[in-house]
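Meet the record:
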Amino acid sequence: MITIKHLSKQYINPDGTVFKVLKDVNCEINPGEVISIIGPSGTGKSTFLRAINLLDPPTGGEILFDGENILAKGYPLNKLRQKMGMVFQSFNLFEHLSILDNVTFAPMKLHHLDRRQAEEEAMAMLRKVGMAEKANAMPSDLSGGQKQRVAIARCLAMHPEVILFDEPTSALDPTMVGEVLSVLRQLASEGMTMLIVTHEMKFARDVSTRIFFMNDGIIYEDGTPQQIFENPVHSATKAFVQRIRKAVFEVDGPDYDMLGVHSQMDAFCNKYHIADKGVAAGRIVDLVAEKVMPTAYPYTLRLTYSELNDVASLDVMKERLEASPLLGADAGVAEELRRLCREIVEEPTTRGFRVKFIL
């Protein structure tokens, strides 16, 4: 469907220096593929999407779409944009139009549908994304997740051959991410060709047929989810996909701000969409502080989350300790701790002892 050869994009800085965002991008995209584009911030992922549909025209290379060079002089952009849809981070709905009018606007203007046919098709698309009941609402009445689902319906109403998604969940509250990802999963199951710039590693692994790992302005690695996440070729890919997020607290005395610990842990869990695990982690912290180690200062709390494996754990570490602090815990406390997690690992370290609660 799309062949990209030696694509490049550069900007001239005010001081005359050249900043190269895309250096030499090469790939082929086939019908029905779902390609997630991952990589560190600032490596050209969003610029790559915007270059493909010429919102931000490249400065070099070729883009062949259905066999035609869309960079050729005189290629009709309207033709391209009717075949290639795009969903942005910030929704870009028309705030003065109802949800139904947002979805019918382009088909009526560009496909010249009459209002009745446009509204019938628009309602079908809104039903697909679960937003039919909001057809007469205004964008200001919707949550972020609802606005993004409307933006997807508006894109689908043009019956594109391929859809580009530029971090479709990045502007959403964590509680709303799931509803948008479920729509993307549905589209993937229906065979829609999609390119998705995303930081949702679990989603990328579950839904994609291919993964592009972008780094330093090029596609650094291209492979199946299994290859990229389990057997990456390059060390940079391995370091990125195996990243482990963590929040560390050094509890040094009875006046330590435990309310602050709870607040930061809640923020951490919300950020990585594991709020359900945050509840258990908070209760474990309270039991450790009040029942297990009420005077054993200092000790370290470390909350970690592996995006690759979707595993969260809370570690309690105490230096110069030779045995598990749980050995002296009340039986009722020990039982509650076991109920709060999937597994408890008690192990000595080179500097002391660690209890790992796998949430």
